[in-house]
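User: Structure tokens for this complex, please. No commentary.
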Amino acid sequence: MVEARGLTRRFGNRWALAGIDLSLEAGDCLAVFGPNGAGKTTLLRVLAGLLDPTGGSARVGGIALPGGAATRAQVGLISHHTMLYPALTVRENVEFSARLHGLAAPHAAAAEALARLRVLDRADALVRTLSRGLQQRVSIARAFVHAPRIVLLDEPYTGLDATGAAALTTALAELRGAGAALILVTHHLEEGLAIATRLAVMRDGRFVRAEQREGVDPAAYAAEYRELTAVAG
Amino acid sequence: MTPVREMPGTAGAAWTIARKDLMVELRTRVAFLAAAVFAVLAAAIFFYAWDPTAVSALDLAPGVLWVIFTFSGLLALNRSFGAELTDRAIDALLVAPISREAVFLGKALANLIFVLGVLVVTVPAVVLFYNVSMSWSAVAALAGVVVLAAVGLVSVGTLFSAMAVNTRLAELLLPTIALPFLVPVVTSAAQATVLVMGGRPGSGVWEWIKLLTAFDLVFVAACTLAYPFTIER
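Assistant:
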């Protein structure tokens, strides 16, 4: 569902992506760890179609990048920005996203997404009146409302309390069960190790380590990750 | 479960975006009130600076109207893309399966309704301050000129608002780069208004209206096609 070969992206003289290879099938979840500036967010933005790659090739949902509307229809993007309108209500924000994705019943789809993230009881509240954690849950509902087949998550657990984190983990499991492929970018090893099927450590625009999650000892992995990122620092 | 969907066309997506922008403005009313108050204050300042023994009302009023129109319109257009940057909502728009042209047209449509709303305040203010008496046919002709001029201003202003929004001095940059392009629109509208307010509607007005229509067609088409190139990729 997601494939990249030698994917690069340059900003001025700096290579944010310096040759990324990856391949994800339906139901896969790749957790990408790495220090600040490693290129994790750029990778997600390129795969989401927000940035064009400088070189290499990538296919998202079977369509080569830079793809058009058909590619973007399959993608759900969550970033550390909420991408919400503070002056609109929770429901209006999610319905707006549903309408842009052409859903036949935007009201019902928004209600379902909000219920999944356990924030339906705040549907008529203005987003600007919500806490950061609740805004993040609404942002996730916005990204999931069209049941994306490829989900790109940039630090999605930021600001979430235990209830929000549990709701997100459940929603991600449901999406994977429905055949979605996930790429999760995070600094927090525990979160990634808990849900990923594959792991990668990114540094200086490259995967410096990549493996299947199965059989990985979390404690040993954390120690080796600290060593890798300490070298980067 | 995958929701039923039908990808929105350009017109449908543009209307969804315009409706969202108008809802945001209705909730906040900040930009509209600022533009309307500016328009009334400017009309008052021009009135008190006017020497009726030196310049007749019919010679001055059209110029005053279109100066106020231009600057109050640009004041309003500044917020058009600024609202999308608060929490990077623009990313959610750009990752939606809609064309870039739909984003521009939606923004422009909302801006057009907004600018026409400001003109509903501005035109009566100028007519009252300068005691201009107009027949109903002249009012209808002026309304046509106003709508055509607003289309020209909004298409150019929306494009340059998208370009200026990421700069540090967006409020200053927008009028600086947009005003030269607005000269043909404002000149044509002012000349047509001189004839309408002077009670001389006829073929002269139609010539200016035809010129305004031609400018609008060129500006709307060129700005719609140019907008995708203003997005950083």
